[in-house]
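Long-time lurker, first post. I've been practising inverse folding by hand and with some scripts of my own, and I keep getting stuck on stretches where the structure tokens seem ambiguous. Below is the full token string for one chain I'm working on. Before anyone asks, I'm not after the true native sequence, just a reasonable design that respects the backbone. If someone could post their per-position residues I'd love to compare against what I wrote down in my notebook.
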């Protein structure tokens, strides 16, 4: 779902070499699910594009994921997204 949300917002601007890692999932004391993602791209330009001006793209991606998650699970999660640049070793593993 997260990958679809990214490509829905960025279309062809972010290459398909996008790493989506779930860093953690936990049920909070209030009962809401908390999900932390790490998105990895290969360049600083892709990172800036993914985040967007004033964080608009990443906010759209987060809201799109939450909407799809709500349809699937019937509950709204708290979501945190970190965007990082993959190092060369990670890029080799991703393309292998």
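-- Answer (accepted) --
I ran through it position by position. Result:
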């Amino acid at each position: 779902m997260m990958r679809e949300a990214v490509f829905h917002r960025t279309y062809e601007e972010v290459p398909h070499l996008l790493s989506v890692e779930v860093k953690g999932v936990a049920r909070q004391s209030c009962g809401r699910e908390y999900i932390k993602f790490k998105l990895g791209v290969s360049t600083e330009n892709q990172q800036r594009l993914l985040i967007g001006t004033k964080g608009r793209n990443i906010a759209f991606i987060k809201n799109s994921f939450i909407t799809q998650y709500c349809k699937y699970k019937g509950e709204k999660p708290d979501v945190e997204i970190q965007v990082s640049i993959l190092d060369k070793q990670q890029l080799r593993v991703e393309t292998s």
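A couple of notes from the structure itself: Helices lie at 2-10, 44-51, 56-73, 88-95. The CA atoms of residues 50 and 57 lie 6 Å apart. Happy to go over any region you disagree with.
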